[in-house]
Amino acid sequence: MTNEEIIERAKKKLLLNYKQQPIALVKGEGVYVWDADGKRYLDLLGGIATCALGHCHPQVTAAAKAQLDQLWHCSNVFYSEPQVALAEKLTAASGLPNARAFFCNSGAEANEALIKLARRAQKDRGQSGRYEILTFENSFHGRTLATLTATGQPKYQAGFEPLPEGFRHLPYGDLAAVKAAISSKTAAILVEPIQGEGGVRPAPQGFLKALRALCDEHRLLLLIDEVQTGLGRTGKPFAYQHEGVLPDAFSLAKALGNGLPIGAMVSSEEASKALPSGTHGSTFGGNLVTAAAANVAFALCTEPQTMEQNVALGRYAHELVHALQQKKPDVVKEFRGRGLLFGIELASGAADVVARCRQNGLLVNLAGEKTVRFAPPYIVTREQLAEGLSIFERSL
Fold first, then answer.
1. What is the mean pLDDT of the chain?
2. Does residue 368 register a pLDDT over 90?
3. Element (H or E) spanning 241, and its range?
4. What's the confidence (pLDDT) of residue 342?
5. Residue ranges of domains in the chain
6. Of 24, 64, 71, 278, whose CB neighbour count within 10 A is largest?
7. What are the catalytic residues?
């Protein structure tokens, strides 16, 4: 079946809520995917920072297949070893004191868990009036009604009013604005170490550490959204570790299952007490097949050599883009990011450039109107990065 035939069927039956690129992908291997017409693409988007080990990684695939032959699903009213093993890995790497893990299906669900945790924790302290979460402009935390409201981008909220109360959006990186916003209603601060959807914008140096100090001073919870940045992409298991801070809880998804649907919230033991039995749950959270795959994905993604390589590859990409800036200063404005999550801001709208990249055999996407986002698999080579940025240059 051709691209055109699949797309025609999709347009008749699927909800038209996505602005999809006009190809139907049918096969993936490593950093490449193929469409239904047989055309090959260099995938430097990785399912939007999800296929961190590339497509159909043999070890992850083997783990999922082996679990399929044993048990697929058993409900969270029972224990399962793959889920426990994954929790042990995540909590050990987090650095949080006596940390605990909760599993769900997506980043949005993990962020929902953060929001519920913060509100309940304040109530358990006798602070029932503390329910407000401070978040940031241009942030992105998910598509559920609560995480959509937490997201600091009005374009995603339009038409869904009235939105739930209890969220305030502040300028990203503006510590004075955060201090001024803290009130007797504030329960927590929710922040991304790098705003992915908001244009691949890293937090200013020292910002997370300053937020930690404010949370300690005012007895707030510091919540960190690691959905795009977690699992070695920036050179550490979790991006907050670059500043030496510890959140009260953080969310994960995307790379955790290398493409299989799984999300997680990891919290300190003290914070985790806010969600005792019966207060939160998920039917499919920590499903045995995804947990088995995630155990392998986590181990491979957080190998020291892999994380060091991610940093080196990010620097190499920066060098290539800097050279391109020298050639086209009126077109290429800025390189932003860390490790293998980076964006290139252009002087004008980037949608046409993304389309031409696809036509030329490269998959990337938009992060804001003017920024092209790259989130390559960790197995990408210097040669493949250079090839991708060469295609990007031709597509300008």
1. 97
2. no
3. none
4. 97
5. 3-56+304-395, 61-301
6. 64
7. 140, 225, 254
